[in-house]
Design a protein that fits this description.
With 107 residues, this protein is an alpha+beta fold. 20% of the residues lie in helices and 20% in strands. The chain has one domain.
Length: 107
């Protein structure tokens, strides 16, 4: 009898900057805002409520908690793009898919 894999693959919709309307929504950002790393909706950069995700692989994927804790954002040219804000709706979706989302200063 085949066994079920305990590893869950990260769905393609959880790739960074991949929301269907990312470009359109990202254009709505004002000063002090950045687009959500997933959907592009404006997020307040300075709000303590804003949650963040670490983007690696040249923008192809979100870092796992282990990758984030081991490396942290860096400027080593290895495809690490740093941390980007994530909107409240996307936080729930990304966490459900196993993506590490955190508040700055409390990774």
């Amino acid at each position: 009898m085949p066994t079920k894999s305990t590893e869950s693959a990260v769905p393609t919709y959880t790739r960074p900057f991949s929301g269907a309307r990312y470009h359109e929504l990202s254009l709505k950002c004002r000063e002090g805002q950045s687009p959500c790393a997933h959907c592009g909706r404006p997020c307040d950069d300075a709000s303590p409520k804003t949650e963040w995700a670490h983007v690696v692989g040249g923008g192809a994927e979100f870092a796992s908690k282990e990758e984030h804790d081991a490396d942290g954002p860096s400027d080593d040219g290895g495809g690490d793009m740093g941390c980007f804000p994530v909107g409240p709706g996307c936080v729930r979706k990304l966490r459900a898919a196993g993506v590490h989302v955190f508040k700055m200063g409390a990774s």
